[in-house]
């Protein structure tokens, strides 16, 4: 039996169509469009696909993305802090996202701490992470929020289920574990020092892979009928010498065992972009008082 495909691309298109309507009707009362500023420092390839996709989708939904900047890899921390300060003070900007990782001369926590929590559409400011830990509403990290939305739309009830999260990053692993916990899953966090990973994943009803290692999870590691969410976005050169995007999950073997699986591309990636746009609209509504 072959697993149900959790189509993030189709769901993202539907949510973006809803956001487009929402922005258009808000615009009848508030003339200024929602504004999103994405700062991309250097040329980290992980960020390239993301920036391109965001710009296309953001503009499509009616969000003004003109305050975004692509900055040189030699930028200093002080210069980046000054740009964040300017965007914090700019009334036309509702969302600020600083692409990670940053070049090594810049301390990313110092930058994230500087973003106005009400404009922190990436949900990485300590205030927003604290709200998540306390289970309060607030801006939530885009990739974890996208994972949760995909699970919800597929009607997957998490209460009492065992969920294994692979990876403990601040961008995905830690926040998605908290969100699964909030839905009453029993959450296990696995990482590079975990012993007998396969035994843990085989006990899981839901596996979320967010490590950045192609082929980390294969069919032999999955319990029959489990749900597998692949957050990995790895660019590899295949046997034919062609560059392509793969996740952390060996799709071919896992789809034969799982009950549902996200593809890469077309799974979590488009949902990340969509949650960023949704967060920007949420922040805009709050700031214009709607
Ligand atoms: N502060 C910060 N927040 C992030 O959320 C963040 C970041 N930094 N740094 C880089 C990573 C990477 N990331 C992606 C999101 C969507 C796609 C995406 O839309 N992928 C498409 C494919 C795009 C293509 O085909 O090239 C898909 O999977 O279908 C890719 C990559 C967000 N990141």
TrEMBL record:
The molecular function terms of the Gene Ontology recorded here are: methenyltetrahydrofolate cyclohydrolase activity; methylenetetrahydrofolate dehydrogenase (NADP+) activity
Q: In which pathway does it act?
A: One-carbon metabolism; tetrahydrofolate interconversion
Give the reaction(s) catalysed: (6R)-5,10-methylene-5,6,7,8-tetrahydrofolate + NADP(+) = (6R)-5,10-methenyltetrahydrofolate + NADPH; (6R)-5,10-methenyltetrahydrofolate + H2O = (6R)-10-formyltetrahydrofolate + H(+)
Single GO biological process annotation from the record = purine nucleotide biosynthetic process
UniProt keyword NADP present: yes
Q: What keywords are assigned to this protein?
A: Amino-acid biosynthesis, Histidine biosynthesis, Hydrolase, Methionine biosynthesis, Multifunctional enzyme, NADP, One-carbon metabolism, Oxidoreductase, Purine biosynthesis
Sorted alphabetically, the Gene Ontology cellular component annotations on this record are: cytosol
Residue intervals of the Tetrahydrofolate dehydrogenase/cyclohydrolase NAD(P)-binding domain:
141-287
Where along the chain is NADP(+) bound? 167-169, 233
Q: Which CDD domains match?
A: NAD_bind_m-THF_DH_Cyclohyd
Protein EC: 1.5.1.5, 3.5.4.9
InterPro entries in the record: Aminoacid_DH-like_N_sf (IPR046346), NAD(P)-bd_dom_sf (IPR036291), THF_DH/CycHdrlase (IPR000672), THF_DH/CycHdrlase_cat_dom (IPR020630), THF_DH/CycHdrlase_CS (IPR020867), THF_DH/CycHdrlase_NAD-bd_dom (IPR020631)
Pfam families for the chain: THF_DHG_CYH (PF00763), THF_DHG_CYH_C (PF02882)
The Tetrahydrofolate dehydrogenase/cyclohydrolase catalytic domain is annotated at 6-122
| NCBIfam families xrefs | PRK14186.1
Please give the function described in this protein's UniProt entry. Answer: Catalyzes the oxidation of 5,10-methylenetetrahydrofolate to 5,10-methenyltetrahydrofolate and then the hydrolysis of 5,10-methenyltetrahydrofolate to 10-formyltetrahydrofolate.
What does the subunit section of this Swiss-Prot or TrEMBL entry state?
Homodimer.
Q: Hey, which family's this protein in?
A: Belongs to the tetrahydrofolate dehydrogenase/cyclohydrolase family.
Record protein name field: Bifunctional protein FolD
User: Which organism's genome codes for this protein?
Assistant: Gloeobacter kilaueensis (strain ATCC BAA-2537 / CCAP 1431/1 / ULC 316 / JS1)
Supply the source organism's classification. Answer: Bacteria, Bacillati, Cyanobacteriota, Cyanophyceae, Gloeobacterales
């Amino acid at each position: 039996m072959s697993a149900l495909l959790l189509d993030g691309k189709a769901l993202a298109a539907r949510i973006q169509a809803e956001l487009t309507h929402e922005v258009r009707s808000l615009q009848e009362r508030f003339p200024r469009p929602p504004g999103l500023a994405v700062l991309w420092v250097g040329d980290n390839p992980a960020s390239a696909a993301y920036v391109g996709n965001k710009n296309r989708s953001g503009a499509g939904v009616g969000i003004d993305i003109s305050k975004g900047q692509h900055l040189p890899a030699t930028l200093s921390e002080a210069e980046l802090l000054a740009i964040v300060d300017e965007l914090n003070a700019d009334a036309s900007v509702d969302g600020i996202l600083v692409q990670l990782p940053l070049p090594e001369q810049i301390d990313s926590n110092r930058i994230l701490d500087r973003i106005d929590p009400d404009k922190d559409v990436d949900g990485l400011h300590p205030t927003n992470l604290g709200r998540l830990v306390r289970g309060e509403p607030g801006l939530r990290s885009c990739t974890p929020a996208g994972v949760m939305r995909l699970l919800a739309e597929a009607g997957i009830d998490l209460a009492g289920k065992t969920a294994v999260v692979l990876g403990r990053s601040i961008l995905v692993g830690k926040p998605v574990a908290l969100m699964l916990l909030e839905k009453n899953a029993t959450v296990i966090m696995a990482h590079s020092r975990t012993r007998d990973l396969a035994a843990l994943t085989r006990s899981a009803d839901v596996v979320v892979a967010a490590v950045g290692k192609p082929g980390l999870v294969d069919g032999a590691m999955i319990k029959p009928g489990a749900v597998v969410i692949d957050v990995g976005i790895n660019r590899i050169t295949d046997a034919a010498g062609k560059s392509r995007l793969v996740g952390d999950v060996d799709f071919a073997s896992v789809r034969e065992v799982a009950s549902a699986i996200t593809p890469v591309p077309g799974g979590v990636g488009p949902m990340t972009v969509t949650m960023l746009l949704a967060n920007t609209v949420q922040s805009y509504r709050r700031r214009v008082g709607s």
